[in-house]
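Standup, Tuesday
Yesterday: got the pipeline producing structure tokens again.
Today: sanity-check two examples.
Blockers: none.

Example 1:
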Amino acid sequence: MSGAGTRRTPDGAPAVERRGAARRPSTRVLKIGGRVQADPNLARLVTQAAAQPNARIVVVHGGGDEVSAMQRQLGLEPQFVGGRRVTSEADLDVVRMLLSGTVNKRLVAQLLTAGARAVGISGEDGAIITARVTDPAFGRVGRDVRADPALVRDLLTIGWVPVISPVARERDSATGAGLNVNGDDAATALAVALRADELCFISDVEGVLEQGQRIPRLDPSAIQTLAARGVVQGGMLAKLEAAVAALEAGVGSIRIGSLETITDFSAGTTIATAAPAFQDHP
């Protein structure tokens, strides 16, 4: 039944359907993976989340598949080690062009069309994201990722939804050279710096899966068990490592899941300091 008091988003859609929980985080960092960005529902769901009372939404996006496709077009073969991209000097130009340019502006355009007050920036802008090269084998890849939230806070205060690409400024460089950083690491650093109420890793899977079934809740010990058994690896393992780092640094809640995680607080896999006993299946 629809009533006259039903709240609606700027595009006229009903406000967030809260099927699962009474909790409404005020500051949320949403890391949007590259593959899910093609979903036509993405912009609508982010706009609904941003329309909630006292909501402050920050989007950090990936786009690795598009970077890989462009590399191949240019005759550069993508390389990965442990789910993390190796980035040469030539690759960094491609990363900047795709992530801070094409991907960022396309996502901002979609959000604006849906009614969100979105603004696109790079992690290099305002030195929002900084990092260091800790392993030269990965080339221009930054680790030890840190965030300065000042610019992001200013944008949130005046009602904008910042949309941030994971390209960082190198802290050890006199010229502030750029670094490619893992989007999960960038989102984690920003969530920690903002003291976010929630960090969500949004991808094309409904959560952490075992034997095709979503695991509703995990703690760091259970994550180690899954990793040791090879249940999680590559990109999902990188997400879980980032989630544990965020948890240890004081982020209120971390979830991994699909698009519905943006508006349904019971969706996805919650990473917490304590979880029900993990069942080690044979």
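Example 2:
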Amino acid sequence: MNGELAIALERIKKIKADRPVYQELMGFYEKIVKERDEYKKSLQLNQTPIPFEEHLEEVTLKEGFTLFEKEKLPFDYDLMKSYFSKLISLIKERALEQANSIEKMVKKEKGGFEKMITEALKRKDSTVQNPLLAFLLNETINPVMESYASYFQDKIKEGMWTQGYCPLCGSKPFMGVLKGEEGKRYLICERCSSEWLFIRVKCPYCGNEDQKKLSYFVVEDDEVNRVETCEACRKYIKIIDLRKINYSISYYIENIATLHLDMIALEKGYENDTHSLDAYQS
């Protein structure tokens, strides 16, 4: 068992023990992370690194351009569809009728599975109107993006990138973390899970730097997680304070285990249009 999977499974075990309300959901994701791990192994065996001229990386980033365009990446659609089908099988254990409906939608789609993947990458309405379909497509796409991004992780040096979107693929951050003695804030990409340093007092979604319009809230008995909000765009982002923990975490699992924070933020009138809400909406 690799380290990433071991960490995810250990966190799932702990969350199930500590938070009874999450037991069923964590049980479902326990199956998903195992399938996801096998999927990523297959991807790594079959993917070809993206060619890039190394001397252009720093210039590209400083000009505000991402290192690759996610819509133009070569995809192994057969492998992706196989994983998508495995996810459908897991969904059938919980919601047979909904899963069957998704299968019918895929068969009826004129452009087929490939078109659905393309539209999901472009965040077209036709895919996101059905929350379960959006969840399945994003869950199929994101490990592919993570695999491609792994070739570039060491290229992002602190200070080279100041934008609120991912320096690798251009997607939005779905979560953030605070770490180091100074509590620097790093954002985490919703697609490829890359991290990049970002100024603390600034909204990553609209760029607002007016401190009077930036705030956060926490819930009682939780000193690790907080929700940062922006009154200018009414968006929110969940933040994990890594300085408060002494154990390893999986951002993928922590996002699921903090859905109650999403619910509170939504009730307060804030919005989040990243994939952070896929599990909640599906």
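Quick observation on example 2: Residues 69 and 169 are 6 Å apart (CA to CA). The radius of gyration is 19 Å.
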